[in-house]
């Protein structure tokens, strides 16, 4: 098998490699709506086995802005309903000349398995509760735009940490970029201690909100819980959410972020979603820019310098 390169996770990327992607993402962020021919004539497929709005459409916008031909795989109308495996689907796409596949799946580790046996480039659009690398990159780009740096920032990630693939990527990336990371959430929604890197601090929600430059709220992912939420949505909001009262505790210049979709009135008060301190819509905008950077980096090959050794197969 020839060497191929993928973006499966951020755990194996260096600070320099992530910085290069952010730099290229900033390039595209400064050129909103600009069309390019960088991937003209190249075919890219989006395979989403889970529901998605922001991630799926921003990948498609990114692909089309780069000039690529886009194929959108629909599981319900494909041979997967007849028992075809993802591996066989990818091999079929390869045979047709498709060069890259963006995959969202419930199965953690699936992309690592596939990377060893396919030639096309794989991009992780979220695998189970493992990682969501492009969301993490767009979050970091948004922070960098706001503060002019990442080094020295304090970021609080609050909410359903155990089931968050966004957190899975941030746990690897933010400390490498010199960010102080605070975690807060219900005891039943905390990650396993072995998953938390040295230097990452668990604090109460009020302390997190009072000390952070970035308050990032996470959705309660009921679809991943084995049991129903043990408290009402209203009680969750009062105990673990960003209420209007808690928002007043934020220090001057601090901002609100959320990877979305947002459960208004649960993890965050609806009046804060589009407030002056919220960067939630900016995150969505930056999603296109970052995904353009990832796509061109992978598909332009030797012209780019970063590569993830985790996902390099022989």
TrEMBL record:
Pathway: Pyrimidine metabolism; UMP biosynthesis via de novo pathway; (S)-dihydroorotate from bicarbonate: step 2/3. GO terms for biological process: 'de novo' pyrimidine nucleobase biosynthetic process; 'de novo' UMP biosynthetic process; amino acid metabolic process. SUPFAM superfamilies: Aspartate/ornithine carbamoyltransferase. One of its GO terms (molecular function) is aspartate carbamoyltransferase activity. It comes from the Bacteria. It catalyses: carbamoyl phosphate + L-aspartate = N-carbamoyl-L-aspartate + phosphate + H(+). GO terms for cellular component: cytosol. Residues 5-145 form the Aspartate/ornithine carbamoyltransferase carbamoyl-P binding domain. L-aspartate binds at residues 82, 165, 219. Heterododecamer (2C3:3R2) of six catalytic PyrB chains organized as two trimers (C3), and six regulatory PyrI chains organized as three dimers (R2). This is Aspartate carbamoyltransferase.
């Amino acid at each position: 098998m020839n060497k191929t390169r993928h973006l499966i996770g951020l755990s194996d990327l260096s600070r320099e490699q992530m910085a290069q992607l952010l730099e290229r993402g900033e390039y595209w962020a400064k050129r909103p709506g600009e069309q390019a021919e960088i991937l003209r004539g190249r075919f890219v497929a989006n395979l989403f086995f889970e529901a998605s709005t922001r991630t799926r459409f921003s990948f498609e916008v990114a692909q089309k802005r780069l000039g690529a031909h886009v194929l959108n795989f629909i599981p319900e109308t494909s041979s997967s309903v007849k028992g075809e495996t993802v591996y066989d689907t990818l091999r079929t796409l390869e045979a047709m000349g498709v060069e890259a596949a963006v995959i969202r799946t419930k199965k953690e580790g699936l992309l690592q398995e596939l990377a060893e046996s396919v030639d096309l480039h794989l991009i992780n659009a979220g695998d189970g509760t493992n990682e969501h690398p492009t969301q993490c990159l767009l979050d970091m780009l948004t922070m960098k735009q706001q503060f002019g740096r990442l080094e020295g920032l304090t970021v609080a990630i609050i909410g359903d940490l155990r089931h968050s693939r966004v957190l899975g990527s941030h746990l690897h990336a933010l400390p490498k970029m010199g960010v102080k990371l605070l975690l807060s959430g219900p005891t039943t929604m905390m990650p396993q201690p072995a998953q938390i890197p040295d230097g990452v601090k668990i604090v109460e929600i009020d302390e997190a909100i009072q000390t952070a430059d970035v308050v990032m709220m996470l959705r309660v992912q009921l679809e991943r819980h084995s049991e129903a939420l043990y408290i009402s949505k209203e009680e969750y909001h009062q105990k673990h959410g960003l209420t209007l009262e808690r928002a007043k505790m934020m220090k001057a210049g601090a901002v609100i972020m959320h990877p979305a979709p947002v459960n208004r009135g649960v993890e965050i008060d609806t009046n804060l979603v589009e407030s002056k301190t919220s960067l939630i819509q900016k995150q969505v905008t930056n999603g296109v820019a970052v995904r353009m950077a990832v796509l061109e980096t992978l598909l332009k090959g030797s012209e780019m310098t970063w590569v993830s050794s985790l996902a390099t197969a022989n």
